[in-house]
Amino acid sequence: MSGVNGASASVDTEAVLAAIESRTDDLIALTSDLVGFDTTVRGDACEKARDEADLQEYLAARLRAAGATADVFTPKPGDLPASPQTPPGLGFDGRPQLIARFAGTGGGRSLLFNGHIDVVSAEPRNEWTSNPFVADVRDGRLYGRGTCDMKGGIAAAVIAAETLAALGIRLPGDLLINTATDEEWNGAGTLASVGYGVRADAAIVPEPTDLDVVTAQRGILGGSVTVAGVPGHAEYPPGDWRTGGAVNAIEKMLPVLAALQGVREGWAADKAHAHPLLPAPSIVPTVIKGGEWWVTYPASCEVALDVTYLPVQADAGGWASRVRTDIETAVAKAVSADPWLAAHPPAFAWDVELPPAEVDQGHPLVGFLLDTATRLGRSPRILGEPSWTDAATLTRLADTPAVCLGPTATRPDGSPTLHTIDEYIEISDLVATAKTLALTALAMTAPAPAAS
Ligand SMILES: [Zn+2]
Q: What's the pLDDT at 5?
């Protein structure tokens, strides 16, 4: 039989596809097992671990049985590479990371499958048709929290690797599987894995993409802006703040919000901020808090901000310092006509920062994925990711070009299934993902053609 995509001509790729098809029940069972571990993401550094360690040990045992070496490790506070992604001194008690390796026979490129085991909260649980932690098959779909984002993708990667091993196929390059925690929070698990030494010649993150190839993603910047006021009885005239009068911090937030909206509209209209694959950069106020008592002029008002920015906006180190300066400068200028705000400037506080990333569309991995998905009857596109994934950490901090390809993330009407009540995955898509990953591993881990 012929090889595919440059894979060894001795490998019968039709047999690989048939073997994966015959393991559909195993793929459903593995995804269901992973859903059964409660790995709801933590929202802060103090939150206790759940079933993360049990899930990682379960996967490690399974991969060892297939012939891999597998290392389950718990990063210590201080092990993380210095990065604005995570709070300083973050610990991982009960949240180990996994790196497994199917050793290559030599001479080929290495390929990494990376997936996050954490899922977003299943609340409100009583609105689900079935228990979110007991996967349920209905109408060709598998329902449960994480089926789509992204325990299904992890199961597809494991089945792909197991199938190649079971067929006795020894890849020339290493095939690595890294499963990590905390992606839904700040990417700490993959960051810790990178700190541990996880890297490869290229990586696939099987996040749900409709079997499209996602090569670019925006950076994320989280923070807040606070405006000060002066408290006073709200049913009396406030007087002049220069002589001790009250100031309403909520009303003083209004020009700040208008200025932030102006920044967003300016970015959207600026051709220099256009990217062929990505939405325009944006800044969205997401939480507002202000006031102390309903009969008192509020003494302060704080608004949380979710900022997304393009690779071209990153500073020389690849981070958001220029974006922060642009926002702060624009707001200061816009509110300078207000005497109170000029004398008491809005105060910005920035916390989590996730880097933007982009992989060259000419990278061989992109071609292998497109060819394989096309062979399976799909019409794959190259797309950008409006949100953020661990692929950025691998691309930017591990010298490992990483793209996303995984099962379908949308309902027939186009609305997303990830993070929803009654999250599900199409079983046919799980199988197609496993097939794509297996054939792409064959192609990618073959020796690179000699440069001419
Ligand atoms: Zn995800």
A: 43
Output the pTM of the full model. 0.93
What is the topology classification, in CATH, of domain 13-217+357-444? Answer: Aminopeptidase (3.40.630)
pLDDT of residue 448: 86
Q: How far is the CA of 246 from the centre of ligand 1 (A)?
A: 47
Spacing of C-alpha 97 from chain mean position: 16
**CA distance linking residue 41 with residue 54, whole number of Å:** 15
Whether 38 sits among the annotated catalytic residues: the reply is no
Which pLDDT value is given to residue 6?
43
The protein residues having their C-beta less than 5 angstroms from ligand 1 (an ion) are 149-150, 207
Place of tokens 């991982």: 92
Going from the Cα of 356 to the center of ligand 1, the distance in angstroms, rounded, reads 16
Cβ neighbours, 10 Å, residue 12: 15
Q: How many angstroms does the Cα of residue 260 sit away from the middle of ligand 1?
A: 28
Token pair in block for residue 233:
């009885």
Q: Are 108 and 446 in contact (CB under 8 A)?
A: yes
Spans of all domains in the chain: 13-217+357-444, 219-354
The Cβ of residue 126 has, within 10 Å, a number of other Cβ atoms equal to: 6
**pLDDT given at position 444:** 97
The alpha carbon of 402 and the centre of ligand 1 are apart by a number of angstroms equal to: 14
Topology of the domain comprising 219-354: Alpha-Beta Plaits (3.30.70)
Catalytic site includes residue 207: no
pLDDT at 1: 37
What's the pLDDT at 263?
A: 96
N-to-C CA span, the chain: 28
The active-site residue out of 52, 136, 162, 183 is: 183
Measured between alpha carbons, how far is 289 from 253 in angstroms, rounded to an integer?
A: 11
Catalytic residue among 118, 136, 353, 423: 118
CB-based contacts of 358: which residues, under 8 Å, 6+ apart? 215, 216, 217, 311, 395
User: Sign (positive/negative) of CA torsion 171, 174, 179, 182?
Assistant: negative
- Which residues in the chain land under pLDDT 70? 1-9, 451-452
303-333 pLDDT, tens per residue?
999 999 999 999 999 999 999 999 999 999 9
- Say how far apart CA 15 and CA 130 lie, in whole Å: 36
CA of 111 to the centre of ligand 1 (A): 20
